[in-house]
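Hey,

Quick one before I head out. I ran the complex with NAP overnight. Inputs first:
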Amino acid sequence: MFVSAVLLDGKGLSRDIEDELKIRVEELNKGGIKPHLAVILVGDDPASQVYVRNKENACKRTGIKSTKIILPSSTSEKEVLDLIGQMNEDEDIHGILVQSPTPKQINELKITNKIDPSKDVDGFHPQNLGKLVQGDTNGLLPCTPAGIMRLLKNAKINLEGKKVTVIGRSRIVGMPLSLMLAQKGVDATVTITHSRSKNIEQICQSSDVIIAAVGRPEFVKKEWVKNSSVVVDVGISRVLDKSTGKNKLVGDVEEAAMEVASHMTPVPGGVGPMTIAMLLTNTVVSAAKKGN
Ligand code: NAP
């Protein structure tokens, strides 16, 4: 395939961020603070197990202590809420994360709301999301949107006055990302599209930047991408590769869009590693605040 786009290398940038964090962790350790992330995994979803393992490995690389608590899929909502309550009180824990998705008897919003906002390293607590609406980006930011913003900034992509289309309006990706893009100082003109939107193809064709967070493999076609626009592919889906008979990871954007885009994130190796880097950053920020 002919590729003209510059790859937005999330894997490389995330390793640079980890190197910086490692130094900050060592400094905190000298002051007697050991940044500590607690991860709760309820059930045995294989994809979630992989995500949790990746987070644990990243903690190891940066010197952050991680504790993993695995609970059976029959665990009640109250049991998880009680565990979070204990972790909120535990001064040794600086970040609490409950891996999504949780089994259906557990309401994820209730879980999010229970986590102490100062330990909400996923950045999903209403208090942290509310700060974003107020234009305050100094709190704990949602990891995937923060990772995307960092990736764009690192590539020196100026968003001021640019037409950015976000496909997807979830509370973890599309909606907070749209707020970050529209904030003062970034100054993009943001269009949010979703499953009830009409003419997404045409909206994309007139956009300088497309950010796809849909969860549908290859939803965005090469023909939707204007010449020299920037494409960020958040989606990760496992699909069967007919040529090998094995599963492979596919994004929300056709790979052939690389032929027309000026910059594009690969899948894997784009947004995914940046999400983890931002999780580690939030954990270190939270630990450093406790030390003040
Ligand atoms: P989600 O909660 O399922 O949200 C998907 C969004 O896409 C919804 O807003 C939905 O619209 C919209 N949508 C669905 N079908 C559509 C269609 N035909 N046309 C237009 N919009 C449509 O998913 P999410 O949690 O935001 O995640 C999205 C993707 O990103 C998934 O593949 C997920 O695995 C991936 N992801 C990756 C990372 C990473 O670190 N790389 C992190 C998080 C998520 P409605 O609101 O109308 O339903």
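The two ends are 53 Å apart (CA to CA).

Talk tomorrow,
K.
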